[in-house]
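Can't attach files on this board, so I'm pasting raw text. These are the components:
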Amino acid sequence: MAYFDAASAAPLHPVARQALQASLDEGWADPARLYREGRRARMLLDAAREAAAEAVGCRADELVFTSSGTRAVHTGVAGALAGRRRVGRHLIVSAVEHSSVLHAAEVHEADGGTTTQVAVGREGAVRAEAYAEALRPDTALACLQSANHEVGTVQPVAEVASVCRQAGVPLLVDAAQSLAWGPVEGDWSLLTASAHKWGGPSGVGLLVVRKGVRFAPQGPADERESGRAAGFENIPAIVAAAASLRAVRAEAAQEAVRLRELTQRIRARVPELLGDVEVVGDPRRRLPGIVTFSCLYVDGETLLHELDRAGFSVSSGSSCTSSTLTPSHVLKAMGVLSEGNVRVSLPLGAAEDDVDRFLQVLPGAVAAVREKLGAPVPSTVVREDALVVDAVGKLCPIPVIELAKVIGDVPVGGTVRVLADDEAARLDIPAWCAMRGQEYVGEEPAEKGTAYVVRRTL
Amino acid sequence: MAYFDAASAAPLHPVARQALQASLDEGWADPARLYREGRRARMLLDAAREAAAEAVGCRADELVFTSSGTRAVHTGVAGALAGRRRVGRHLIVSAVEHSSVLHAAEVHEADGGTTTQVAVGREGAVRAEAYAEALRPDTALACLQSANHEVGTVQPVAEVASVCRQAGVPLLVDAAQSLAWGPVEGDWSLLTASAHKWGGPSGVGLLVVRKGVRFAPQGPADERESGRAAGFENIPAIVAAAASLRAVRAEAAQEAVRLRELTQRIRARVPELLGDVEVVGDPRRRLPGIVTFSCLYVDGETLLHELDRAGFSVSSGSSCTSSTLTPSHVLKAMGVLSEGNVRVSLPLGAAEDDVDRFLQVLPGAVAAVREKLGAPVPSTVVREDALVVDAVGKLCPIPVIELAKVIGDVPVGGTVRVLADDEAARLDIPAWCAMRGQEYVGEEPAEKGTAYVVRRTL
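---
Top answer:
Structure tokens for the assembled complex are below.
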């Protein structure tokens, strides 16, 4: 059994466990109290703040502990927007931010603000020039992740921070995925992170607001954590979070090389082993432990079940069959294949043997899913002037499977129209065309759903 | 050494520690994931929710875990107000609520809503009739604590809930101080609580919203915890919180009797031992473990230091010398003496010997503070037509000490004017008069600060 979903949550680091247990005895009291138990708690909290600030590369009085990374993002975005409300109400985010940032942006829009989403390239990275173009005189805040949580692509934070700094706009960096590996470079203004991504306990986030950044905390007043994180401080967890951040940093350089080699092995082997697969994310500027690929003719969730049965815990940005019925916004923004998506994110200390075993198991698992899906209820093929595949009512990856089945019947130069109403088809049919060298002509409204037109070129 | 501030935070219950350690191994993964680690985490979370719901007396799907009691209150108040926004924007709270409720009310007012504060009697309790009078056609929500955190007075929640129910207004009960002792009675609509008050770890609160109560969560969307508590669930802490709630409930009935006897001993002995002391809070309808008293001519913070040096950790609602320079809003609302205030809140298992030793140490500690303060810089006594004591610029308890020093110089039937600009004097001079049988005539504006007029009657 191997857990390969560290980007979601990492198991507790041994140092975190040790620190947690020690501080359960010393850190349960109210650090605002003057008696000995309170003073001990305050000392632990202060020491944890110093340690975390050192790891981030900021002053201790710029850093507060929140109850989660999500909460840090929500508080950071709302406070920075409110602090610069006089300047304007324009917010910039990248199209591939974590949902916590996008949800904060939604609230901002519902409240009358405006948001610009900066597009990413096919490898998932933004360009600093795109941020420069998005900046306006009324821009109150820009947000950019340090690295993407789904595909591992590292963002040009220092360049974007410099562009923002020139415009006098603060940049909030969501460093959830990268803080374990090192401080965020560049002249950013706010930073958020989440301890359970680096082997700390759940229930601890970080919010850093640089001195001089205008910040107006929203919501009910609370004296704790400089008024930026309401509620009683969870000191044992905070102590454990700081201790584990320091511990993972001590091994980061060495472990990064090792994990990078393992994810590179997956990147290289997966296309050879599976066929009809697209490895996504930037091949060079990427996090050491994350590798993501998408498999044609595969339903991501079924594949996760197959892999779970084989003892591997991975996640998927392809949620075609989940309740929401929408593919990952990240894969969508990148314009890459979303069907049969698998994210492997290796925890610190991931065993080489487990990775090799994963590569042994994977082809069988993918083949099993493809076999299961290979005989769906046949779609009606209506021959008109062009071939029509009716996949209305069918969920991803069925429309693509149907397309693949009939493309051989289309004369070279001829077209086929795929009727589909599953949102994922809009992404996956062009992606299939790109992968198979066929021409994607475009989409047009159809009586039922949307018609995606493909021309056979070979 | 004895810790007598359980109303602020209780040390971790042994059962909580055990549950926390066990679930650190099983509960760190994302409960929304489908692989085995995620399923295990989900099972732990579901079981904890069932256990907590049983202790509260609600359905499991009515209860979510938040990151603190404060957060539960903020979310509960905001969500309930938004859910009934069409009805109106009037909020009712008692004058002695926890600061988290009052701060939520402040935000509501800043946002254009209105709030009615229901007054309390001298023993700290509201009357159900007062809530009935405060209810208006546009009342969206009423809030009432189950018991007061500073003086231990138990509130008539069932009666107030019934009054609110008749008016169709939901009642939110802040049960932070009482949930360890038993479920909250009556037909309430929302309930909040905090695990570290019952020996659970920090970082866990409860928010219960009864089915049928209109509730619209505010802030950025998040799928976790029914959309009512953003951020990754802290499952080990949640498991520990639920386990310790169950454990303290099992011993509650027996322990309540024991602690009630100990606090009764303090209530009875303190006036005999100290003199010039007022024991506050309801003598009968009160929590088992809390007893609060105020000492004339004593500065609360100095007394806490004396007691801390003697090995006792207690807290004070009298913050005359703290940064805020205002006496506790609770003592103020009750109209009782606030100077030299001490709250003793016994943790479960508090040793009888420690309580007796506290009663031995207390008289010496109070005497030491009174001695220190007995020789302040003499105030200028200006004889005009009436005696004037100029205590402008002097902080509590100096104005009262100066008053006590000169009252003997006033002829019976004559008056003395105390000039003071410390806010606490407004509360403490009338309280001193009531305790010493002198007549408090009233206050009037003076050239410097306020003049408090006292007539010597004996």
